Amino acid sequence: MLVQSPSRIYKADFSVWKKEKACILNEIIIEEASDLRKVSEIVLDESGNYTLQFAEDSTIMVMILYGEILINDFEKTISSEQVFTLSSNESNLLHIKNNLEEEKADVLIFEFKNKKNNRFFAVEDLHIISKNILFPISENVEYPNFIGLYEGRKEQEYILRENNKSIFGMVINGAFEFQNRLMESRDAIILSEIATLEFEALSENALLIFFEI
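^ that's the sequence the OP posted. Answer follows.
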Protein backbone atom coordinates (compact mmCIF):
# COMPACT_ATOMS: atom_id res chain seq x y z
CA MET A 1 0.00 0.00 0.00
CA LEU A 2 1.31 3.41 -0.97
CA VAL A 3 2.07 5.63 2.02
CA GLN A 4 1.65 9.35 1.38
CA SER A 5 4.87 11.15 2.32
CA PRO A 6 5.34 14.84 3.12
CA SER A 7 6.39 16.68 0.00
CA ARG A 8 7.19 19.99 -1.60
CA ILE A 9 6.49 20.41 -5.31
CA TYR A 10 8.19 22.94 -7.58
CA LYS A 11 5.90 23.40 -10.60
CA ALA A 12 7.58 24.52 -13.80
CA ASP A 13 4.49 26.57 -14.73
CA PHE A 14 5.11 28.82 -11.71
CA SER A 15 8.87 29.15 -12.07
CA VAL A 16 10.46 32.54 -12.71
CA TRP A 17 13.10 32.80 -15.42
CA LYS A 18 15.62 35.61 -15.07
CA LYS A 19 17.22 37.21 -18.11
CA GLU A 20 20.99 37.54 -17.84
CA LYS A 21 23.39 39.04 -20.36
CA ALA A 22 23.79 35.93 -22.52
CA CYS A 23 21.32 33.43 -21.07
CA ILE A 24 18.11 32.87 -19.15
CA LEU A 25 18.20 31.28 -15.70
CA ASN A 26 15.78 29.42 -13.44
CA GLU A 27 16.76 28.40 -9.90
CA ILE A 28 15.29 26.13 -7.23
CA ILE A 29 16.64 27.03 -3.80
CA ILE A 30 16.36 24.13 -1.36
CA GLU A 31 15.86 24.61 2.40
CA GLU A 32 19.04 24.73 4.50
CA ALA A 33 18.56 21.29 6.09
CA SER A 34 18.87 19.50 2.74
CA ASP A 35 22.11 18.08 1.33
CA LEU A 36 20.99 19.45 -2.04
CA ARG A 37 21.45 23.22 -1.91
CA LYS A 38 20.30 24.46 -5.30
CA VAL A 39 19.23 23.39 -8.78
CA SER A 40 19.78 25.74 -11.71
CA GLU A 41 18.65 25.44 -15.31
CA ILE A 42 20.51 27.74 -17.68
CA VAL A 43 19.66 28.22 -21.36
CA LEU A 44 22.71 29.78 -22.98
CA ASP A 45 22.46 31.96 -26.07
CA GLU A 46 24.55 31.09 -29.11
CA SER A 47 28.17 31.41 -27.92
CA GLY A 48 26.73 32.71 -24.66
CA ASN A 49 28.31 32.26 -21.23
CA TYR A 50 27.40 32.30 -17.55
CA THR A 51 29.39 32.33 -14.31
CA LEU A 52 28.05 30.46 -11.30
CA GLN A 53 29.39 31.13 -7.81
CA PHE A 54 29.13 28.15 -5.49
CA ALA A 55 29.60 27.89 -1.74
CA GLU A 56 32.46 26.23 0.12
CA ASP A 57 32.26 22.47 0.69
CA SER A 58 30.25 21.88 -2.48
CA THR A 59 29.94 19.14 -5.05
CA ILE A 60 28.69 20.38 -8.42
CA MET A 61 27.13 18.16 -11.07
CA VAL A 62 26.48 19.56 -14.55
CA MET A 63 24.17 17.83 -17.06
CA ILE A 64 23.76 19.11 -20.61
CA LEU A 65 20.21 18.61 -21.86
CA TYR A 66 21.14 19.74 -25.34
CA GLY A 67 24.08 21.49 -26.94
CA GLU A 68 27.79 21.52 -26.20
CA ILE A 69 29.65 23.53 -23.56
CA LEU A 70 33.06 24.42 -22.22
CA ILE A 71 33.69 24.72 -18.46
CA ASN A 72 36.40 26.87 -16.87
CA ASP A 73 39.76 26.22 -18.52
CA PHE A 74 39.08 22.61 -19.52
CA GLU A 75 39.95 22.22 -23.18
CA LYS A 76 37.54 19.39 -24.04
CA THR A 77 33.92 20.15 -24.79
CA ILE A 78 31.13 18.47 -22.82
CA SER A 79 28.01 17.23 -24.60
CA SER A 80 24.60 15.83 -23.68
CA GLU A 81 26.05 12.33 -23.42
CA GLN A 82 28.41 13.38 -20.62
CA VAL A 83 28.28 14.61 -17.02
CA PHE A 84 30.73 17.02 -15.41
CA THR A 85 31.37 16.88 -11.65
CA LEU A 86 33.49 19.07 -9.44
CA SER A 87 34.08 18.93 -5.69
CA SER A 88 35.76 21.65 -3.64
CA ASN A 89 36.12 22.73 -0.02
CA GLU A 90 36.45 26.38 -1.06
CA SER A 91 33.98 28.82 -2.52
CA ASN A 92 34.70 29.27 -6.21
CA LEU A 93 33.38 30.16 -9.66
CA LEU A 94 32.16 27.92 -12.46
CA HIS A 95 32.45 29.51 -15.90
CA ILE A 96 30.19 27.91 -18.52
CA LYS A 97 30.32 28.78 -22.22
CA ASN A 98 28.15 27.57 -25.09
CA ASN A 99 30.60 26.15 -27.62
CA LEU A 100 28.13 26.40 -30.52
CA GLU A 101 27.81 29.59 -32.53
CA GLU A 102 24.43 28.82 -34.12
CA GLU A 103 22.57 26.84 -31.44
CA LYS A 104 21.54 27.38 -27.85
CA ALA A 105 22.59 25.08 -25.01
CA ASP A 106 20.46 23.94 -22.07
CA VAL A 107 22.28 23.02 -18.85
CA LEU A 108 21.18 21.64 -15.47
CA ILE A 109 23.44 22.30 -12.48
CA PHE A 110 23.03 20.59 -9.09
CA GLU A 111 24.85 21.93 -6.04
CA PHE A 112 25.25 19.45 -3.16
CA LYS A 113 26.97 19.63 0.19
CA ASN A 114 30.42 18.02 0.00
CA LYS A 115 30.44 16.04 3.23
CA LYS A 116 33.64 14.10 2.49
CA ASN A 117 35.75 17.25 2.14
CA ASN A 118 37.35 15.92 -1.04
CA ARG A 119 38.55 17.82 -4.12
CA PHE A 120 38.31 16.62 -7.72
CA PHE A 121 36.81 17.23 -11.13
CA ALA A 122 35.75 14.63 -13.68
CA VAL A 123 33.89 14.08 -16.93
CA GLU A 124 31.89 10.86 -17.19
CA ASP A 125 29.94 9.33 -20.06
CA LEU A 126 26.19 9.12 -19.52
CA HIS A 127 24.69 5.96 -20.99
CA ILE A 128 20.98 5.15 -21.13
CA ILE A 129 21.29 1.86 -22.94
CA SER A 130 17.71 0.64 -22.52
CA LYS A 131 14.29 1.81 -21.39
CA ASN A 132 12.49 1.15 -18.11
CA ILE A 133 15.72 0.79 -16.12
CA LEU A 134 17.39 3.19 -13.71
CA PHE A 135 21.03 4.02 -14.43
CA PRO A 136 23.48 5.94 -12.22
CA ILE A 137 24.16 9.46 -13.48
CA SER A 138 27.55 9.89 -11.81
CA GLU A 139 29.79 7.65 -9.74
CA ASN A 140 31.52 10.70 -8.28
CA VAL A 141 28.51 12.21 -6.52
CA GLU A 142 28.30 10.82 -2.99
CA TYR A 143 24.49 10.75 -3.01
CA PRO A 144 22.67 7.94 -4.87
CA ASN A 145 21.62 9.39 -8.22
CA PHE A 146 19.65 7.93 -11.11
CA ILE A 147 18.24 8.62 -14.55
CA GLY A 148 15.66 6.59 -16.45
CA LEU A 149 13.84 6.64 -19.80
CA TYR A 150 10.40 5.01 -19.65
CA GLU A 151 7.62 3.74 -21.86
CA GLY A 152 4.07 4.90 -21.13
CA ARG A 153 2.29 3.17 -18.21
CA LYS A 154 5.50 1.54 -16.98
CA GLU A 155 5.64 1.37 -13.17
CA GLN A 156 8.66 0.99 -10.90
CA GLU A 157 9.70 1.05 -7.27
CA TYR A 158 12.94 2.27 -5.72
CA ILE A 159 13.88 1.29 -2.16
CA LEU A 160 15.99 3.94 -0.47
CA ARG A 161 19.45 2.79 0.56
CA GLU A 162 19.50 4.70 3.85
CA ASN A 163 16.97 5.52 6.54
CA ASN A 164 15.81 9.08 7.23
CA LYS A 165 16.62 10.29 3.74
CA SER A 166 14.56 12.26 1.22
CA ILE A 167 14.12 12.06 -2.54
CA PHE A 168 14.60 14.96 -4.92
CA GLY A 169 13.10 14.13 -8.30
CA MET A 170 12.73 16.06 -11.54
CA VAL A 171 10.92 15.20 -14.75
CA ILE A 172 13.10 16.15 -17.70
CA ASN A 173 10.61 15.18 -20.38
CA GLY A 174 7.08 13.82 -20.47
CA ALA A 175 4.90 13.08 -17.45
CA PHE A 176 5.02 10.79 -14.41
CA GLU A 177 3.02 9.96 -11.35
CA PHE A 178 5.55 10.34 -8.56
CA GLN A 179 4.22 8.83 -5.33
CA ASN A 180 0.67 9.54 -6.66
CA ARG A 181 1.54 13.13 -7.56
CA LEU A 182 1.33 14.30 -11.16
CA MET A 183 4.69 15.57 -12.41
CA GLU A 184 5.23 17.04 -15.87
CA SER A 185 8.24 18.33 -17.79
CA ARG A 186 10.64 20.31 -15.55
CA ASP A 187 8.49 19.83 -12.46
CA ALA A 188 10.50 18.90 -9.38
CA ILE A 189 9.62 17.43 -5.99
CA ILE A 190 11.15 16.71 -2.60
CA LEU A 191 9.67 13.72 -0.73
CA SER A 192 10.60 13.19 2.91
CA GLU A 193 9.86 10.44 5.44
CA ILE A 194 9.95 7.92 2.63
CA ALA A 195 11.32 4.35 2.48
CA THR A 196 10.13 3.29 -0.99
CA LEU A 197 9.57 5.49 -4.01
CA GLU A 198 6.85 4.46 -6.47
CA PHE A 199 6.47 6.09 -9.87
CA GLU A 200 4.69 5.48 -13.17
CA ALA A 201 5.39 6.97 -16.61
CA LEU A 202 2.33 8.58 -18.16
CA SER A 203 3.83 9.25 -21.60
CA GLU A 204 6.18 7.60 -24.08
CA ASN A 205 9.89 8.33 -23.76
CA ALA A 206 9.38 9.98 -20.39
CA LEU A 207 12.68 10.93 -18.77
CA LEU A 208 13.29 11.50 -15.07
CA ILE A 209 16.18 11.94 -12.66
CA PHE A 210 16.26 11.67 -8.88
CA PHE A 211 18.64 11.77 -5.95
CA GLU A 212 18.57 10.30 -2.47
CA ILE A 213 19.53 13.21 -0.22
